[in-house]
Design a protein that fits this description.
Layout lengths: L5 E2 L30 H6 L13 H4 L11 E22 L12 E9 L4 E11 L4 E8 L3 E5 L12 E16 L4 E20 L17 E22 L4 E8 L2 E3 L2 E7 L7 E3 L2 H5 L6 E9 L2 E3 L2 E9 L4 E10 L6 E13 L7 E13 L5 E11 L4 E10 L17 E13 L2 E12 L3 E10 L3 E23 L11
Length: 491
Amino acid sequence: MKSVQKPIVTRISAAVVAVLAASAAQAGSFSLYTETSAVALGNYAAGIAAEAADASTGWYNPAGLALIHNQQVVMSGAGVFPRSTVTGTSTFVTPANPPLAAPPAFTESYTDLNGARSAFIPAFHYARPIGDNAAVGLSVTSPFGLSTDWDRNGPLRYAATYSELLTTDISPEIGGKVSENFALGAGLDIQYARVKFNRMLGLPTVMPVIGLAPSAVDSYSYNIGDSWGVGFHAGILGMFNENHTRIGLNYQSKMKQKFHGWSQLTGKLSNPGLIIVSPASVNAANPNAKTWSNNLSSNSIEFPDVVTLSGYHDLNERFALLGSVVYTGWSSLKTIQLNNVAAASAAGPAFPASVQFNPTPLNSGSEQNYKNVWRFAVGGNYKLNDQWLLRAGGGYDQTPTNDANRDIRIADNDRWALSIGTHYQARPNIGFDLGYTHLFSAGSEPINRTEVQGTSTSTYNVNAMAKGTADLVGAQVVWNMDEPLLAVSKK
């Protein structure tokens, strides 16, 4: 090894902060734009900005609040059950440092390794009419989220272990008619975001040279940060043909987040003055040593803006057709930068004479280069009677990730979707919705990501094919607090 100081990790994984927690089985990267609504899960969000089925329209198109004529509370929850598998190899390489030969590469193979984690996503919506043609609302949603979890002892541990992103968006809203055929609405979005991103740091090529297991100095890197952001959403709703035909357009603004938090490295690499020279020197190190960095921060991360165009049309008294086109401006996510990550660096004569490691906070950066994407959905509602309404739908969703920058924290791919759902009006003031969506993989996507790992110019490459599917199940209760005008949610 070179005698100059070199970091153990000069790049924390590429998907840190904004993309680090999304389940790879969720299309559209880590977006949960419609996945918190049982109605949306029942027809893959076809017509979501035009139907105005209940108070949740305050989030999907606040102009639809003009069609809510009674005080209403909607409480919902969705279970996301993903499966994200990767098949391939990971290779850790430490180059030669003349006159010393390079240690052998450390390679691990895996087949159908699953890193997806199930999640529960709650949501709350409230609407209150003000006069005959307007209403105010409040929405509490989670527009981005989910997580991945790769084994700390597994073959991907030097790229990522546990990752998580949680967001909570609190949105006061107002909407109302401006004419017989048009309504406008807007909402303020106050968003809290929290992230966790973990991985193992180690020297799997060097340890066997001195007679130890590759994982002998593996140390756990734990990082957490949070942030507040402010944005808005606004929409317009056109109502024609005695309100049997509706067209809705909604815009969700970009949300800028800058994360702050702390970082901890636990393991033998946190021992000050750790000398890599013999099994005795490594074994004597404290495996529970900790290094802290209390000023972890990121660059400004922009969550994307979203434009939704939806249509709703009653073919007759029982059957309605719905459709949506969604454009998401993911190109706002280009580079991730982390500052003051708790890590370690090496200094000293070339191995095996004596290499000394010391805890050192480091900065790291990575390119994401997301691309803008489209989502398409079509569906239908069928009214059986005054109590039952059936929903069905399907569509296609593009991934914003690209072959050059995709990594295992979010091994996303394009998706096809099929959905079914129902609304049951149990009483004049109480209704229930159930929705189910299955996401089918449109094909496997390649991951070929190489990152500098430290210990001179060591690199870690993940070369794999990723494939993801998911089942999403949602339920909600709709409570009409005042005497309702209609027995079912269809307007």
